[in-house]
Every structure is written in C-alpha cells, then in structure tokens.
C-alpha cells in the first residue's frame, strides 16, 4: 500500500493496482506502507492517521489519564503504555491493551465478624488505601489482584484481633492498621501493590456483649463518682477540723463565727422582739438557742 501526497498534502490511499497520473501538474510523492507489521514505524503524522481514508487501515488505542496499560500483541506482553493515544496498523495480528488505574485507591472491608482472644464476638469495619506499583505483577502474574488483597486483609485482621482481648483491642484500636500493614508487607508486593494506610473505622459489639459492656461502663462510672464523693467529704471534714482548731485557739475568731451563724439565722426570721436593756446580744443568743 502507498500513501499519495500532492505538493506535500495527503490525497489518497493507493492499494494494489495500476494508476496513471499527468506529469508536471503536481509534485507527487508516494510513501510505501507495510501493513504486515503491527507497529507504525513510518513517519506519518497523527493528523493523517486520523483521516477517514485511513480508517480501515489503522487501529487506535487510548490509555486515559492516570492509567497505565499493558500492550499485548498476539497474546504476548510487548511493553507498558503510559497515558496517551497509540496507533497500529490493522491486520490479522491481534492487539489488546489492559489498562489499570494507578491512582491511590481505597478498599472497604465492612462488617467482619471476629472473635477476640477472650471469646468476645464483635464486628469490625476496616479500610485500606493502596496503589498499583507494579502493573505487570498486578495484571499478568495475578488474577483479580483487588480480590486477593481483600482476602489478605481479612486474614490479617482475623489473626491480629484473635491475638488480643477485647480490652487490649479497644486500647490498641488506633495502631491496628499500622501493625497489619507491617505484617502484610511482601504479600502486597507480590500482588504489585503498595499499601499506604489502613485502620479500623468502627468496632461494633453484638447485642449481648453490648449490654455487658454498658453494665461494666455504668459500674466504672459509679465507682468513679463514689470515689470523688468520698474525696470531697474527706476534704470537707478536714476543713471543718482545721476551722475548729483555729476557733479553739482564738476566742475572737470563735465570736466572729458565732456572729456569722447568727446573721444567717436572722435572715430567715421575719420579726424579733427584745427588751430595752443593754444586753441585746445576749437576748439574741437566747432566742437562737431555744
């Protein structure tokens, strides 16, 4: 096959056959094309390859942005394709591109029912963030790499939770993801993946266990409240004792304290009748002492 150019402009595709042209009218050039191969090694611009006259002769493959692709020619891996548009000659040789997203992805592992070391049944919602690092391993050496990662995370989570009591798990909840990623290590690399982050979203107790934990929490809070009350009572008693000692040692302080209580009592009395002699304070004391 030949491509015909007139004065440097593409005009026509010439298949097998005989063609006649007037001489001297246009400056014609002919570019020979080998359609038996897949790769377009000829110097042809993308504009010409997109021309409708070449539509039946060219295969166009697109790897979108943030993706990478594996080029398979006759079922065999040829090379890795970065994001972009690629053109190949259209013939009997099969061409396929397996594309994969290379951005950071997140996988949710929800509602996992697990048993702790002390036989407490609970449900855990877990997540893991990962990225495809080796596209060949992910697509060529493993089938459904994402499902394999899901199972690996399930097993790692079950192993980790099974080695802890419920109290230990609740204390270490925030560090679970880091420890599981460390244990995952090489297994994720074998899938062509790199796990960047993981962690527990929720720890959900089953009905009976939830009731037990609520009872434990209530008992703990009551114990804390009783401790605080006893501490306050002790402090109050100690304060009263210190005040009594000071009043015992200081008669003026005793009198001031006595007058303070008399003032408080008087605030609650509407009318007070006393005689006209000079000993009013003694009369008030007699009234309040009754």
Description:
This protein is of the alpha+beta class. A hairpin with a 2-residue loop joins strand 5 (67-73) and strand 6 (76-81). It is built from 8 helices and 11 strands. The longest helix has 43 residues, at 207-249. Helix content is 40%, strand content 29%. The model has no long low-confidence stretch (mean pLDDT 81). It has helices at 46-49, 135-139, 145-162, 166-171, 176-190, 207-249, 251-266, 280-289, and strands at 2-6, 9-14, 28-32, 58-63, 67-73, 76-81, 84-89, 95-101, 105-115, 121-132, 193-205.
Terminus-to-terminus distance: 130 Å
Helix share of residues? 40-55%
Note poorly predicted spans. Answer: none
Strand order of the largest sheet: 2-1-3
| Mean residue pLDDT | 81
Radius of gyration: 44 Å
The 3D shape can be described as: elongated
H-E order: EEEHEEEEEEEHHHHEHHH
Largest sheet: 3 strands, antiparallel
Determine the strand fraction and express it as a percent band: 25-35%
Number of strands: 11
Fold topology:
Layout: E1 2-6, E2 9-14, E3 28-32, H1 46-49, E4 58-63, E5 67-73, E6 76-81, E7 84-89, E8 95-101, E9 105-115, E10 121-132, H2 135-139, H3 145-162, H4 166-171, H5 176-190, E11 193-205, H6 207-249, H7 251-266, H8 280-289
Antiparallel strand pairs: 1-2, 1-3, 4-7, 5-6, 5-8, 9-10, 10-11
Helix pairs in contact: 3-5, 6-7
Can you describe this structure in just a few lines?
This protein has 290 residues and is of the alpha+beta class.
């Amino acid at each position: 096959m030949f491509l015909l150019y007139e004065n440097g402009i593409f005009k026509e595709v010439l298949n097998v056959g005989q063609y006649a042209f007037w001489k001297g009218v246009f400056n014609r050039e002919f570019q020979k094309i080998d359609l038996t191969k897949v790769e377009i090694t000829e110097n042809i611009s993308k504009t010409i390859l997109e021309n409708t006259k070449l539509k039946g002769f060219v295969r166009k493959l697109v790897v979108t942005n943030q993706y990478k692709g594996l080029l398979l020619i006759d079922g065999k891996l040829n090379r890795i394709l970065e994001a972009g548009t690629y053109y190949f000659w259209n013939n009997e040789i099969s061409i396929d591109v397996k594309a994969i997203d290379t951005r950071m992805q997140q996988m949710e592992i929800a509602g996992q029912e697990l048993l702790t070391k002390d036989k407490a049944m609970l449900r855990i919602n877990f997540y893991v963030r990962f990225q495809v690092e080796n596209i060949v391993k992910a697509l060529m050496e493993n089938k459904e790499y994402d499902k394999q990662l899901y199972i690996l995370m399930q097993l790692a989570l079950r192993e980790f939770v099974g080695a802890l009591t419920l109290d230990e798990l609740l204390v270490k909840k925030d560090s679970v993801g880091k420890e599981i990623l460390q244990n995952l290590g090489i297994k994720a690399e074998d899938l062509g993946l790199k796990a960047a982050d993981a962690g527990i979203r929720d720890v959900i107790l089953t009905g009976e266990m939830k009731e037990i934990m609520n009872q434990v929490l209530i008992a703990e809070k009551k114990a804390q409240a009783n401790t605080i009350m006893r501490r306050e009572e002790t402090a109050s008693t100690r304060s009263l004792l210190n005040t009594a000692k000071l009043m015992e040692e200081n008669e003026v302080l005793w009198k001031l304290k006595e007058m303070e209580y008399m003032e408080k009592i008087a605030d609650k009395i509407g009318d007070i009748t006393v005689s006209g002699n000079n000993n009013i304070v003694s009369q008030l004391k007699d009234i309040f002492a009754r």
